[in-house]
Amino acid sequence: MKSRRPSCTDSGSESSESDSKSPETTTRRRMAANARERKRMQGLNTAFDCLRKVVPQWGQDKKLSKYETLQMALSYIVALNRILTDPRRHAAPHRQWLDLQFDCVQPENYSCLMRYESPSGQEYLHSSFSYQLDGHQVHV
DNA sequence: TAGGCCATCTGGTCCT
DNA sequence: AGGACCAGATGGCCTA
């Protein structure tokens, strides 16, 4: 594991008589805030690990970065959404419906719309997704 | 060695 | 008032 900067959060002395402005209190609060922030970031990283497990890796032996994980999750959701909204077009065995690459879905290229279509073809309120793929506007 | 990725610290802001 | 969240800064590790 990485060697981390010496942490000042190890549970140490607790001053009980200090007022709210004393250096001791300030330091104690900072240490507590650091510990909370560390815990929060660990929770975030746990969530990223969970996301990596359910997102396709396409044979990558290297762990996806956080950014790549988010991009891949976005592409994956788009692909699954396409299957759900138009299964006959996208779910055929010969279809390479998961051939979206990271670059296919860039934040500047997509927009979320509020439209949905049921499997029976009946339209109702839902969320759909559109993005730029190879220069073409794709709606799923 | 440079660049990418990451963990941690820190101060600011918002919320309860 | 204190906790949660966020973004910037900093420095360590790893790989090409």
List the helices and strands and how they pair.
Layout: H1 23-54, H2 66-85, H3 87-90, E1 110-113, E2 116-117, E3 123-124, E4 128-133, E5 136-139
Antiparallel strand pairs: 1-4, 2-3, 4-5
The protein binds a DNA duplex (16 and 16 nucleotides) through helix 1.
Summary tags:
140 residues; elongated; 5 strands; alpha+beta; disordered C terminus; DNA-binding
Largest sheet: 3 strands, antiparallel
Written as H for each helix and E for each strand, in order along the chain, the element string is: HHHEEEEE
* SSE-based structural type: alpha+beta
Give the total of beta strands: 5
Helix content: 40-55%
Strand content: 5-15%
Shape: elongated
* Low-confidence spans: 1-18, 94-140
**End-to-end Cα distance:** 42 Å
Order of strands across the widest beta sheet? Answer: 1-4-5
- Mean pLDDT across all residues, rounded? 62
The helix count comes to 3
As a whole number of angstroms, the C-alpha radius of gyration is: 23 Å
